[in-house]
What does this fold into?
Amino acid sequence: MGAPTAALPPELAGFARLLAEASEARPGGGEMAVVVAHPDDETIGFGGQLRRMRNSIIVHVTDGSPRSGFDARAHGFAAPEDYAAARRRELEAAVSEVGVPASSLLSLGIPDQDAPRRIADIAKKLAALFGTRKPRFVLTHPFEGGHPDHDATAFGVWAACRLVARGGGMPPAVIEMASYHLGSEGAVWGRFAGDEPELVLTLGPEDLARKQRMFAAHRSQTQVLAQFAVGEERFRLAPAHDFAALPNGGRLLYESKGWGLKGDEWLTLSRVALAALGLQAGRETPA
It folds into this structure.
């Protein structure tokens, strides 16, 4: 299990209690928004909890299909739009395994790999959503240089919280779920970079079986999903990231993957977005 609840930061301990108090018969999630980059990220990071937290709203920043068409062709689709439609069908099938209706799925409709170029727009849309729904928690990606859309989503959530606070509202606590990053010996899957306190949940047999079915529903993503251990999920309170700098000490997994971004471009895009939103760079908390 990870650190005892008493040893966790108060916000993370509150998140742990929310998960513990929910059940299949009395599901929770109304206090939470899940904001992820791609269809399947909700399954990877939170699939084992979704049956009990099926009242959550789940926001996908991208449609999972780069407009270059390379990924679409690699998966047997004639056009990026066809691939995006297939990923949406896979997503709906996956979350139906845990009782989440398609009506709980929102998409910002940004093409895969384009999120870093739309950070300010993402932040404004999320701020409006947070202002309307007033979630107590938002669950999202860590800022670790794994995928550029993950980092853009993390930035967008942070900036949205700042905009909510600037408007006099109460921003949600930002909880991160483990994803992937570049370690000293290569890619690290399902673990955080850094040593902040974590909540580590081991799935029981029923939740494990459901999550395996969710993985199977994302048929086009089998190769990627095979990198992740299914039976454990990790969460932490978002650290005070500096989004105007490179994450993970400048070790960027996406630079070696051809995922449409280099570190120097991230620095430019993030600083332009900060200026457009009227936010300051640096290691500042959302409130």
